[in-house]
Amino acid sequence: MKAIISDIHSNLEALQAVLKDIEKYPVTDIYCLGDVVGYGPNPRECVDLVMKCKIVLLGNHDQGALFDPDGFNPSAERAIFWTRDQLESSNETRPLREKRWEFLAERPRTFREDGFLFVHGSARNPLNEYVFPEDIYNQRKMERIFALVERYCFQGHTHVPGIFIEQVPDDLYQFSSPEEIEYVHRLDGRKTLCNVGSVGQPRDGDWRACYVLLDNDTIRYRRVEYDIDTTIRKIYAVPELENFLGDRLRDGR
Ligand code: ZN
To answer: What is the dihedral of CA 9, 14, 16, 18, to 10 degrees?
Structure first.
């Protein structure tokens, strides 16, 4: 069994709760689809924890912290500069800082294994493209993305969990939220995109951390409660992280 997590966004309490939840299952490998940092108050601790994952992909916020952030809104950009500062200037030893920095810098953008593709954004633009539920009505976009997927693709980035399926031959696309499928989906050979949701900043109206378990052909969504008050308190305490970044966690938006 594998666990697939994404979009942790420096939310240590959410990540710890998810890792504890994963321990309840016979999970052999954890795959992380990127955005380990950005928005939240604990970038260093989150990078240290994901180092034990089998695969960690580069997310757009990770890239923003490493290089010049481009295309972010002002509050996200401010959080990214603060994150970079945290990674560069801690009281810890230089080798530890460099280890984290190198780890982030070496992240791949895609990973393929046994017909499964793993990306942060989309198969077409692994780092930056959003695939939202409403995109099922954008035939051209979906056709192009699905054409690049051999069979199954796991992705994150939107923080909105759910399953996209290509209906052949009528070329219609279907999206189902985790609730609509009662948190379980069986892969059946049809091309499928699975958005695994976000550990540290869900935006589907459910504040609980989200991730998926993959057991052969069965995807199971998990929602995990965590100590959200502690995370919000930490965000409020950092001037560079705007308070609304804490408030939005409570609303899951
Ligand atoms: Zn993200």
So the answer is: -110
